[in-house]
Specification:
Layout: H1 2-12, E1 23-28, H2 30-34, H3 38-48, E2 51-58, H4 62-68, H5 78-85, E3 90-96, H6 100-108, H7 121-125, E4 134-136, H8 140-150, H9 164-167
The protein binds ribavirin triphosphate and magnesium ion.
């Protein structure tokens, strides 16, 4: 009940997604799905201690992807990016936890896999910037926009995380 109230509050006042309720949008890109990296990527977020609140396999439309990457519309690689991202299904996820936006970006590594340290997802599983296997929101504000673009409110699950006392003090 409290959880439901918090979700409604967070939905109306999106700045309610802060502290342990911060959320980020993560997507395993089509190359990650084809290369069977979904389980490995999920495992890393679960083991870190984050809470999964949304998960689905989606064939994204070009319109959705253009909106998602709207800020990059002027870049020379934009058309290639839309074609790459629409080339197969994507696993779309919402993860919740303290500082999850920033920590997820650290776990992912740099945009260019060549600059990504071993131990990061891009540093361990890919080589080229145009096939960098994972997307993660780059700020709390973009996370809020991306979550509402990719997920309906009813697809975000509210559940009691019994391990949270062992993750947070
Ligand atoms: P993402 O949004 O996918 O999580 O990646 P990002 O924040 O690390 O990087 P961003 O600048 O937002 O770029 C989005 C995606 O565009 C592709 N890209 N290609 N060919 C190129 O120079 C180039 N630069 C970027 C990558 O797939 C990048 O993740
Ligand atoms: Mg980005």
């Amino acid at each position: 009940m409290i959880c439901l109230f918090l979700s409604i509050f967070a939905y109306i006042f999106q700045s309610g997604w802060t502290g342990v309720n911060e959320r980020t949008f993560i997507a395993v890109k089509p190359d990650g799905v084809q290369r069977r990296l979904v389980g490995e990527i999920l495992r890393r977020f679960e083991k870190r201690g984050f809470k999964l609140v949304g998960l689905k396999l989606v064939q994204a439309s070009e319109d959705l992807l253009k909106e998602h990457y709207w800020d990059l519309r002027g870049k020379p690689f934009f058309r290639g990016l839309i074609s790459y991202m629409s080339s197969g299904p994507i696993v779309a996820m919402v993860w919740e936890g303290m500082d999850v936006v920033k920590m997820a970006r650290k776990m992912m590594g740099e945009t260019n896999p060549a600059d990504s340290l071993p131990g990061t997802i891009r540093g361990d599983f890919c080589v080229e910037v145009g096939r960098n296997v994972i997307h993660g929101s780059d700020s709390v504000e973009s996370a809020q926009k991306e979550i509402s673009l990719w997920f309906r409110q009813s697809e975000l699950n509210c559940w009691e995380d019994t391990s949270s006392h062992w993750v947070y003090n």
